[in-house]
Amino acid sequence: MTLLWAILAGMTLVGAAILIVPVLRHQSKADVSGELVNSLVFKDRLKELDAEREGQFITEEQYQQLKQELELTLLKDVQDSQPDLTAKSSAGKWVAWILIIIVPIAGGIIYLSEGYRPELSEWFQQQEKMQRVMPLMMSGNFEAAEKEGVNIGDFIRNIQIHLQQNPDDAQSWYLLGVSYLQVEVAKQSELAFSRALNIEPDNIDYLMGHTQASLAMNNGQLTPKIHQTLLQVIQQQPQNPKPYMTWGMALFQQRDFQGAINIWQQYLQRPDADQRAVKLLQRSIDVAKAGLEQPAQADQTGQALHQQKPELSVTVKVSDTIKTQLSPTDTLFVYAKATNGPPMPLAVVRQTVAQWPVTAQLNDSTAMTPDMALSKFEKVVVQARISPSGNAIPQSGDWIGPTKVISLKPGQQAVELEINSAMP
Predict the structure, then answer these.
(1) DSSP secondary structure code for residue 370 in this structure
(2) Would you say 196 and 206 are in contact if contact means Cβ atoms under 8 Å apart?
(3) Alpha-carbon gap, residue 210 to 226, rounded angstroms
(4) Distance CA 371, CA 348 (A)
(5) Positions in the chain whose pLDDT score sits under 70
(6) What CA–CA distance (Å, rounded) separates 211 from 245?
(7) Number of Cβ atoms within 10 Å of the Cβ of 303
């Protein structure tokens, strides 16, 4: 912001100089021109007198008298012109000082009335905040970002700006891919992970991110390429729980419960298994076993999941004033994110605008990645948003309402939200 004001001040001074310098130069030239004219007239008249004397049109006495009169006339003209010159010089200086004062004031008034917008100041404030928060988020300190009120849309926009200046920053491409994955933009997520892999092709985290994005693009279906990639990661890093989780979740979503159990148990049998992953996978295996016992009743399987893991039943209402401004093509987003964690949503439901009220279910099945499941956190912030453009990234003109902080418990919890305002 300081740089902007410095630039505006410099432009104002340049504009004032453009107006003042010609005024001063014009005054100087005008003074010289008056004296020059008087001198030339005197010389021409003296030459005429000399010619008349030589031609004997006038006597010597008459010549001397006319020459004296001519000299007196020239002296009088010079004396008469001195006050005018002083006045003109003084007037020129006053004009210059008036311009020096008026031009900056007029420029400031015009900027404040026509060029200044509050949104510009807000934008600069947001940029200053992101300059403080971005290094923290890049290092994984999402709690600091949460305290600053930074949402995933802000993070995505600023990391895009960062990548325009640093296109070879593989870690930033990876974080951008994770962010896109969280807001369900699978194609852009896959492209971001691809860029990270092009820079660091041996990074397993980048490879797993690309695999998860590819799964999302294929509606959770295991393609031969994805299957081969997961096998490759397991061979290279058998102690890494991510490929087992991803592979098992893909089989679970295809209702291949036994296949999912087999994959997850392979990791549980390892002596170096991560205990945090063990707890999560054990709960997932219990749910898969429930699905095997009642394969024909998907609803009962879902109930078994709900009994062991938290689920938020979010009812969204819309104020009457906003309801009349909505279109059937608008998109409703209902999501939950951790109060002390990454700004990306943990669970998201996306659907077109329908009759109100609308009820959406947020649980581990609506999570984008197993590592960021709803059940792994104790408290979440729940919010609903309507986007006329259908963009997953919040933007000006979207419809929102107050958020609610929920302490998660096993089983289903009811939450009510109302959308009643527009994003600035």
Answers:
(1) G
(2) yes
(3) 10
(4) 15
(5) 1-42, 70-71, 74-104, 106-151, 294-308, 341-343, 354-355, 368-371
(6) 12
(7) 15
Global pTM exceeds 0.70: no
Give residues with Cβ within 8 angstroms of 121, minimum separation 6.
Answer: 1
Residue type, 401: G
For residue 372 the two structure tokens come to 């960021």
Q: What is the pLDDT of residues 293-302, one digit of tens each?
A: 765 454 544 4
Helices assigned H by DSSP within 254-392: 257-268, 275-293, 298-308, 320-323
Closest CA to 156 of 135, 172, 139: 172
What are the structure tokens assigned to 46, written together? 């003296």
Instruction: Tell me how far apart the alpha carbons of residues 414 and 412 are, in angstroms, rounded to a whole number.
Output: 7
Question: Which positions ≥6 away from 5 have C-beta within 8 Å?
Answer: none
Distance CA 394, CA 271 (A): 44
Q: Are 401 and 417 in contact (CB under 8 A)?
A: yes
Amino acid at 113: S
Phi first, then psi, for residue 254 (nearest 5°) are -85, 5
The number of beta carbons lying within 10 Å of the beta carbon of residue 165 is: 7
pLDDT score at 198: 93
Rounded Cα gap, residues 24 and 92, in angstroms: 6
Q: How far is CA 280 from its chain centroid?
A: 36
Residue 17, number of CB atoms within 10 A of its CB: 13
Q: How many CA atoms lie within 13 A of 112 on its CB side?
A: 6
CA–CA dist 34, 42 (Å, integer): 13
Distance CA 391, CA 184 (A): 10
Average pLDDT, the chain: 75
Report the C-alpha gap between 371 and 182 in whole angstroms: 11
Between CA 183 and CA 395 the distance in angstroms is 13
Per-residue pLDDT of 181-238, as tens digits, reads 877 788 888 999 999 999 999 898 899 989 888 888 887 788 888 888 888 888 888 8
Token pair of 16, please? 């004032």
How many Cα atoms are found within 13 Å in the side-chain-facing hemisphere of 259? 12
Nearest to 211, CA basis, from 259, 240, 250: 250
The span from the CA of 78 to the CA of 129, in Å, is 69
